[in-house]
Amino acid sequence: MHYSVLHSSTKIPCSIACRRERSGKHGSRRTVLYALAATVLVFSALPSGARHNAFAETETLPAIVTQLERIEIYPPEVELRGPRGQMQLVVVGYDAAGLAIDLARQTQYFAGDENVVTFQRSTVRTAGNGQTLITARVGEFETSVPVRVVGFDQPNPVSFRQETIPALTSLGCNAGKCHGAPKGKSLFRLSLLASDVELDADTLTRETLGRRTNVMQPERSLILRKPTMEVPHGGGVRLRKSDPAYAVLKNWIAEGSRTEEPDAAECTHLEIYPPAGHILQASHPDQQLLVVAHYADGSTRDVTQLSHFHSSDKKIAGVRSFGLVTAKHRGVMAIVVRYGQQVSSRSMTVVDQMDGFEWSEPPVHNYIDELVYNKLKQLHYAPSDLCSDEEFVRRVSLDVTGRLLPVASVESFLADESPNKRAVLIDQLLDTSDYARFWVLKWGDLLSLKEDTLGGHGVHKYYEWLVRSWQENQPFDEFCRQLITAEGSTYENPPANYYLAWKDARKWTENTAQVFLGVRIECARCHNHPFETWSQKNYFGFSAFFDRVRKKSGQRSGEQVVWVRREGKVTQPDSVLLWTVKGEIAPWVPGSGVLPVAGTRDLRQAFAEWLTTEDNPFFSRVAANRIWAEVMGRGIVEPVDDFRSSNPPTNPELLDALAADFANSHFDRKAILRRILNSRTYQLSSQSHPYDESDDRYFSHAAVRRLTAEQLMDAISHVTGISEKFASLPEGTPATHLPSPHLGGDFMKAFGQPERKSVCACERSGDTNVWQAMHLLNGPMLHKKLADAGNRFRRGIEAGHLDEEIIRNLYLAAFCRPPTAQELEQTTSYVSAAEDRATALEDVCWAVLNTKEFLFQH
Q: Is pLDDT at 686 greater than 70 in this prediction?
């Protein structure tokens, strides 16, 4: 957002005018409509960035060759099996900057022995057993790849598991919106994303009197006629006779529709080419992918044509059904590939040469700036200038404590001329009790602190334990271990409330994964995860850690006791519909697989130890990303609780460095937060310029955010000088210190205070709506504070202060800056011309509280 959009110099007189037309407590209808129109401006969307250069057309071969420094061919070696064996080759050229150019259309291929392989465009096919060398030539550049063909003289029938089922998956037939729905579509049901191959075999070959697969007349099979629209099909045209998937399905049916394959090797993983680190450029936007499946018997297969492709961000790059990626806009995204039950992804970066862009080597405060600048330089975004002291003091006080500083503290900071005053202020704020309670407010959302589940006594016990943890800067790994392994009375051992906040093992499993691993696994409870390698079996293996936990009533009212059974086992449902069960599931964690827990009574101990190790691939990354997001406005991975390969970090090197720093500091929360706050990246201005105004994810300028519900309540109380009274809490308790959302009122609900029904970060809303506008324009809370005889500007009147002094004090309280000369002239003129000085100053204060500059953090 441009700072000029936030600036209030031209907005306040207009706001005053509409307020002065009010009649009575809540104002006239005309006033409400007029002011509501002004507030629509306050909450309007930010201006979009300017468009960058159009993507260039493909160049001729001579022009391309002059840019190349080397070419590479993928895969680096090829093994083909059987008479149907084939492999698509991908040739990529790299220029001096390491940027890639897909050379599929410009490459000539030559086989050393044409009795071993032949070519069809860039696809090599088997011609006979043996070994040879394939050479790829682009202009004067050459590269080669060895090829080995085996089993050419052996039968090579279509594999049901390795080809037929993946072909249906690539077409979307077993997706949740199609025949993979719980009840299927049009009396045809497949297991979701091929999660139950045995069920699919029966469905395809035995139902509808065999009409789906007609062995005698394969072309008459319904699974071929419907997706080609030879007969009516609700899903439209999904298949053409020229498609590889059509050939697979037709040949499988012609060969007898065999589904039993006792010797079929399981696919262990996918390999995607070009390899990781691939950088596309706008002038050469296309890149063909190659997907190679690796099987347990050591064999490989080109499964590009049998895979389903999905772009994580279609604005940056799209992908066609056969794996052709087309870049559209500079940025970082991922291509997600599904083949059968295997899911993999390839993160890709798109760069564009911006006219007139020059990198100016801005100052660096620490490693954060270096890594942010590396990404900005690569993408041709220039960082904004450093924010002013006025912007910094307001920003950092809101980010660290959730509250605005007293006017005297603001004036002292602004008058300080020492070069390290920002670092000093950061240290001072981190040592306040406000810091601890504000960050506990954030974790109260994640841990579902609320009175209706924990009880009045329990929620306060739990809340104060959390506050002590933050005040004492307890290492984050110790904090997590205490929560996860807690047992006993929820009154005597407050961390035990972790298991009272959620009702059963299912919620403990899902919420623990989401909060500490950044993984949303709930969908894997009923079927394999659609975008990750989490299977239903993995879900129940993870839930085994919490299955023995039990709760019972304590001796005191509302007290619960958490305890752990000595033994127990978890079984996996075989079918969601039948809910029969398979055998026992061993405790399992992502990345490490089955954990050894023999003889362990409390399996949570083993899980907590695994979770909090310094080399855990999830723990430090998720925690560091959450802290970053709280002060930067968005995560490096966004949403912060959705870590998956198909949702890549916008700056992987930065995230890795923050995670390593956090782990090396023994998970010191203050240390990593201090590092972020002291970076120049954090202290950049929110004012954008032509070379960063379209950036909303790479941190070239500060993000503009609306104040949270609690921050806004406290800010209004601070500016007016009238605190809010919350139920049974002591007078003067800030909204940012509330232990439970039930203590808030309608105002905070309107501004997105969550009910804490979910651990998802999305429950706290930052959206704007008319309800918020009405609260700010004529709401009873704000009206009461403005009319209070003891408020800030009325106390100034009683003390005999001049209008200029009172207005300056209001501006310093609200914006952490004095008014500009224009603002001071306009507001003092308005007050001096009014019949009632107090009423006029009330209007000025109301107008200040309704400006963008006040309502937003910037």
A: yes
